[in-house]
Amino acid sequence: FSSFHLAMGRGATTLGLVVLGAALAVALDNGLGRVPPMGWNSWNHFNCDVNETVIRETADLFVSTGLKDAGYEYVNIDDCWQLSRDEEGNIVPDAHTFPSGMKALADYVHAKGLKFGVYSCAGTKTCQGRPGSYNHEVQDAKSWASWGVDYVKVDWCYTDGLDPKVQYTKLRDALNATGRPIFFSLCDWGIGAPWEWGMETGNSWRTSGDISDSFPSMLSNIDGAAPYADKAGPGGWNDPDMLEIGNGGMTPEEYRSHMSLWAILPSPLLAGNDLSKMDQTTLDTLLAPEVIGVNQDAAGIPGKRIHKDTTGQVWIRPLQDGRVAAVLFNDQDAEHKMTLKFSDVGMSGSAMIRDLWARKDLGVYTGSFTATVASHASVMVTLVTTGLPIKPQRSSRPSSKK
After folding, report:
1. Measured torsion, CA atoms of residues 217, 284, 36, 254, in degrees rounded to the nearest 10
2. How far apart are CA 44 and CA 213, in angstroms?
3. Residues forming a β-bridge with 116
4. What is the C-alpha to C-alpha distance for residues 105 and 118, in angstroms, rounded to an integer?
5. Residue 28's pLDDT band (boundaries 50, 70, 90)?
6. Would you say residue 128 has pLDDT above 90?
7. Measuring CA to CA, how many Å separate 254 from each of 5, 260, 322?
């Protein structure tokens, strides 16, 4: 979607979404990704030191910590699960770290009411030197489907001379041919402008390089995704990489900013920490119900950065029930007062403001909302006019099988 306009009056309120034809794209019709996926991925904390015990324990912790009930469902193994190929070219898991095999591990995850994901690479090798899927696209897709895989992330290492759109299209077709719905995550780090063709190819696409557990890295990745907000929607999402929340490199306020920004973009919410060692603050950040609610909003209207200056950034996202979500993000090194002008989101008159992290109403404001925001912190709110409820209206997205 290239633009949207909010028109709000005192007696009645409407929400219109203007869609320019040039921005329309056909979603990969596997029925997945109508909202961004939620789950966990092994890489950010465990890197290559991953095994089936970690995956089983993580699945258990999804249930016991409340993550499953909050909407987290994908338990994804990143690089280093695969070891070689057999004489017929089939991918072979590492029997030392995954002795039960991938089918048994997928069955364990599924028995918890969760979904199971794996990793590959579009090139000849994965980024850690394991076998990639190049020239084995159909074979690997069949293996993944036979194991019960629900999600596959495909990286872009060892791809000299290859074209991302061509290679990811091959994998898309191979996945579709299996008949199993498998969420397809494209990870070419944005070098092939996947936001231009990702909607017809996969369910999410990376917009930048890998994230690291630091505020500058998090800031760089959200800045990298911001220009392409209008390329996303139900079926396909911009992906500024996985969450670093709880890995120790940022402050609690910075992690809440991380969560707020990924929620409003909206991005996949894939935790990347050791769930067995997280503290209550980390868990509370990952479980924040009203923040997650913005990310999972069924209308599927992308968020948009409407303001960026020396005081910080302002993001907004219209929601299905007529509210508007907003994030006032202070990306600077000093405290600032930040203001959201109602006119910037098409509002006039008064609106009720609700703090989504505190989960409380802040009161009725007229014309604008101002908050004092600490360095690297965020204030995340929703706005709703004090008149009649907003009636969201969206254009239909075309869809066809690929």
Report:
1. -20
2. 8
3. 75
4. 11
5. low
6. yes
7. 31, 10, 29
DSSP characters over 112-160: TT-EEEEEEESSSB-TTSSB--TT-HHHHHHHHHHHT--EEEEE--S-T
Catalytic residue among 60, 173, 210, 355: 210
The C-alpha atoms of residue 255 and residue 377 are separated, in whole angstroms, by 9
155 assigned to active site: yes
Q: Report pLDDT digits (tens) over 185-237.
A: 999 999 999 999 999 999 999 999 999 999 999 999 999 999 999 999 999 99
**Which among 155, 230, 241, 297 is annotated as catalytic?**
155
> What is the pTM assigned to this prediction?
0.90
396 Cβ partners below 8 Å, 6+ apart?
none
Q: How far apart, in Å, are the Cα atoms of 261 and each of 42, 180, 222?
A: 21, 32, 7
> d(Cα 328, Cα 390) in Å, to the nearest integer?
22
147/396 Cα distance (integer angstroms): 35
| pLDDT for the residue 373 | 98
CB-CB contact of 282 with 276 (8 Å): no
∠7-8-14 over CA atoms, to 5°? Answer: 70
The model's confidence at residue 397, banded by pLDDT at 50, 70 and 90, is very low
DSSP H helices, 136-251, are 137-147, 164-178, 215-225
What's the Cα-to-Cα distance from 150 to each of 171, 173, 271, rounded to whole Å?
15, 16, 17
210 is catalytic: yes
Give the model confidence (pLDDT) of 130-153 as tens digits.
999 999 999 999 999 999 999 999
State how far the Cα of 233 lies from the Cα of 23, in Å rounded to an integer.
Answer: 11
Cα 389 versus chain centre, distance: 29
